Amino acid sequence: MLASILASGLAVGAVYALVGITYNTMYSTSRVISFTAGQLGMLGGVFGSLFMLVWGIPLLLALPMVLAVCAIVGVITEFVAVRPVLKSLDQHLYVLSTLALALMIQQTTAIEWSTEPRPFPKLFGLAAASLTRNSGCPSLPVC
Q1: Which pLDDT score, from 0 to 100, does residue 57 have?
Q2: E strand or H helix that includes residue 119
Q3: Could you report the per-residue pLDDT of 123-136, keeping only the tens digit for each?
Q4: Where are the domains of the chain?
Q5: Inter-CA distances, 65 with 60, 124, 138, Å
Q6: Could you write out the DSSP letters of every residue in 53-90?
């Protein structure tokens, strides 16, 4: 069970680190704070789960599809929330416009796919029995 907790914590921490690096890179290159980076990370997980679990697409085909969908959302963000606001007199409104778009993406995803956690498909056949879901705690009601 300890190995499962450590693996899960490292995976979640790596995702947060990637989102943080994205925020830093976007701000240092363009001086634009876009709050949609976290939403793109969330959409990557949602669409990855959709493509692999629901539609049954293999990993090597689903990964480029997820990247394409997230790239399209990023381009839409640029044209809808950033460019029109940067042309206005008060250029600090892009922070609010990207935040508003991020909240709309989050709420649309919550309505469409719900907020209940779902298991992500096993990517590699390397997981031991101790790393599988619900193992080691059959007596706990939460498991």
Answers
A1: 92
A2: none
A3: 666 544 444 444 44
A4: 33-123
A5: 9, 19, 37
A6: IIS---HHHHHHHHHHHHHHHHHHHIIIIIHHHHTSS-
Q: For 5-35, how does the pLDDT look when each residue is reduced to its tens digit (9 = 90+)?
A: 998 899 889 988 988 898 899 888 877 777 7
pTM of the predicted model, to two decimals? 0.71
Q: How many angstroms separate the CA atoms of 101 and 78, rounded?
A: 11
Nearest to 82 by CA among 19, 17, 37: 37
Report in angstroms the alpha-carbon separations of 132 from 11, 13, 42, 112, 117: 15, 19, 22, 27, 15
Cβ pair 131, 7 in contact under 8 A: yes
pLDDT at 114: 86
How many of the other CB atoms lie within 10 Å of CB of 88? 11
